[in-house]
Each structure stands twice: as C-alpha cells, then as structure tokens.
Design a protein that fits this description.
The protein is α/β, with parallel strands linked by helices. The chain is built from 9 helices and 10 strands. The strands form 2 sheets. Strands 6-5-4-7-8-10-9 form a 7-stranded mixed beta sheet, sandwiched between helices. The chain has a 3-stranded mixed beta sheet with strand order 1-2-3. Helix 4 links the parallel strand 4 and strand 5. The longest helix has 14 residues.
C-alpha cells in the first residue's frame, strides 16, 4: 500500500504532557525524539498530527465539540442529509451502523447525532489514536457527551474484524475507502496531504465490500467520489448522487420501525 513508511515522532507541547506523550509513544511504537517527517503532538487541545517542514499545513485533530463538526451538527440538515438517507434513517428507524473505515469519525458522528448506535473501526493506528482522543475529550461535554456515548471505537483491520464478528450483526455497514478526493476544500486537502503517506489508497476495497455484504443484516453503503467507478464485485442496487460524492447502496433487507 505504501512505498516507504514516513518517520513519525511523539512530542509533548509542554512538560505537563510528557508522561502522557511517553504512554502514546509506547502504545504506538514511536520515538519521542530524533529526525522525522511528522509529529504526533500532545497539548492543551489534545492529540494532533502535524507535518514538519517549512511548507507544511497546520495540525489535524479530532474535535467533535467545536469547529466544522459543531456547525454541521447544528445546521447540516439533520435527517435530511444524504448520508442519513443512504443509511436508512427515517421516521422511527435509527439503524445500528458499523463504520468500517472510520477515519476522523465525522460521518459516524453525524449519524450518532441523529440517534444511531455506531461502531467504528480504524486500522491506521495514528488515525485511531486521534479519534480515540477526540472521543475522550468530547465525552465530558454536556451537549456532545451523550452523542459520542453512542460511538464505540475498535482499532484493527476491518476485514478481519468483520469476518470474526461475534454477537448481533450491524444492520448497516458504511464504507468510505480512501480514494483521490476531488473535494477542493482547504480542510480536506490538508488532511489528504497528511494522511495519504500514512494510509495510501485502499487497494483491498473489494475484499472490504465482500466482508461487509457477508455481515450486514440490512444494507451496505459505500461512499465514492461522484465520478469514480463502483467498487469491483457486487453491483449496487442504487445510488444517491451529490455534488462531489455519491453513496452506492447495496440493499439486503428493508429497514423497518
């Protein structure tokens, strides 16, 4: 997937964060010093990933309380959003959703804010660490805490975790494999610049779709760039198109209240 792994170190941004930084370094197998291309920094605003160098963009962190995520929660359109329609949110129906490619958790948070129970899987350890930190910080917020309480994070390979799933199957599985995003927003471009060296493209997307179709009880939803081909394998039943992306829906059973 990745030609050569980038060098990453862990940095405390103040002495008070030294012990916590040492714990993250030990968990992730990263050094606390030396030469590196990226730094996982711990400071007043939590855990953040930053590219090092003179032309590098600013840091990326997971913030469910403020910023763009808060604006979308308040003004994003609620259950009228396309992602809500894609997963089957409707009157009396809030499906149990497995987001098998969680990333920074934004889509999962939207669904949790609408009342869905979410399980999130993220296989890239550093991205999973950012997400874990963001969920932990949000849990203490009076308004957002009850939302993230509906989000459970698993770190690991989604294909293996789905194949070995124990207990009740998720009604809906949501997939957003890494692809060359055509979104021109500064935020997305910054995140893609940071994450592409870590993640690469999801070349195992067909196997991911196959595992999802074998596990989901009601439907699988795949987010794609609007003009990108469907993932190789089973054909979607129908699609919902947006300006820059679309949702391919693979219906298995009807969602009912």
């Amino acid at each position: 997937m990745i030609a050569s792994a980038p060098r990453i170190l862990v940095q405390p941004l103040a002495p008070v964060y030294r012990a916590a930084a040492e714990q993250w370094a030990a968990r992730l197998g990263l050094p606390l010093g030396g030469e590196a291309e990226f730094a996982l920094q711990l400071g007043d605003e939590g855990l953040q990933l930053v590219e090092l160098g003179p032309q590098a963009p600013g840091p990326v962190r997971v913030d469910f309380v403020g910023g763009a995520v808060a604006h979308r929660r308040r003004f994003g359109g609620g259950s009228g959003q396309m992602i809500a329609k894609a997963v089957g949110v409707q009157s009396g129906v809030r499906p149990r959703v497995l987001d098998a490619t969680a990333g920074l958790g934004r889509d999962a948070f939207v669904l949790a804010s609408l009342g869905c129970e979410l399980t999130l899987i993220e296989r890239q350890p550093i991205i999973a660490a950012l997400l874990e930190d963001g969920l932990a910080r949000a849990a203490s917020d009076a308004e957002v805490g009850p939302i993230v309480a509906r989000m459970r994070l698993l770190s690991g390979d989604a294909i293996r975790l789905m194949q070995a799933w124990a207990g009740e199957a998720p009604q809906v599985i949501y997939l957003d494999p890494m692809f060359p995003h055509r979104d021109k927003s500064a935020l997305v471009k910054k995140e893609m610049r940071l994450f592409r060296p870590l993640v690469g493209d999801d070349l195992d997307a067909p196997a991911l779709l196959e595992a999802a179709l074998a596990l989901a009880s009601h439907r699988v939803v795949v987010k794609r760039s609007r003009k990108a081909p469907a993932i190789a394998g089973a054909k979607p039943g129908y699609s919902l198109d947006g300006k820059s992306s679309r949702y391919d829906i693979y219906p298995l059973r009807k969602l009912q209240a």
